[in-house]
Amino acid sequence: MGSGTHARYPLGMASGGIDREAWAKIVKSLRLAETKGKTAPFARKIGVDSRTVDRWVRCEVDVKEENVRAVARALNRSPVELLVQVGLYRVDELAPPALPNPYEDPIIREIMADPRWTEEQRADLVRAQLERIEADFIRRRAEYEQLLRLRPGREAS
Questions:
Q1: Structural domain span for residue 139
Q2: What is the pTM of this model?
Q3: What is the DSSP string of the chain?
């Protein structure tokens, strides 16, 4: 395929499993929220050509998982949430986040094994790492709860 050429597919699911109609809806919503509906600034913000955004909105091209992930990253959104919304993953395929065993954490293991720390320093460093692990767990759990609210057959909250 030459430059500027793009493949058109029938509406609905793309060959990669991404529902182009759902993606078009998401792109329209994000474009409205991020740039008041303006395509060119939105395209610059997410790092694609404005013609690509137009093709996504018209459901004319296949959408890759990496496109969805890149848009999510550019807009500080959850890639997993968007991937569920476009039908690539189902919520029931995603395991809820579980609090890991802190002593299996590589950073904590390194702190515990490093002879340069005093016992007091070691305790402070481990405590700080445990706080980070717990904060990450809480964030991930909240994201999972949000995904549960988005599962098929339920309206988004």
A1: 92-157
A2: 0.54
A3: --TT------SSB-TTS-BHHHHHHHHHHHHHHHHTT-HHHHHHHHTS-HHHHHHHHTT-S---HHHHHHHHHHTT--HHHHHHHTTSS-GGGSPPP-PPPGGG-HHHHHHHH-TTS-HHHHHHHHHHHHHHHHHHHHHHHHHHHHHHHHSTTS---
